[in-house]
Amino acid sequence: MSAADPRRPEQCERAEAEEGALLLPAPAAAGLDPDTHRLLKRHFLDEIADGTPAPYPTAVPRRRLMPVLAPAAGVCLLLVVVAAGLRALNTADGNQAEPPASPAAVRLLGRIALGADAAPAGAVRDDQYAYVKVTGHATALDGDTGATEPTDESGELWTSVDGSGRTLTRDRGGDRWDDAPGPGSLSSPTYRFLEALPTEPDALLARIRRESDPQYGPAVDSTVGVDQGAFVTIGELLRSGTAPPVNAAALYRAAALIPGVITVRDAVDATGRHGVAVARAHNGERIEWIFDEKTLRLLGERTVLLEDGAWGEAGTVVESIAFTADGISDRAGETPPEGRPAG
Question: Which of 28, 78, 143, 222 reaches 20 to 30 Å from 93, CA-CA?
Answer without folding.
Answer: 78
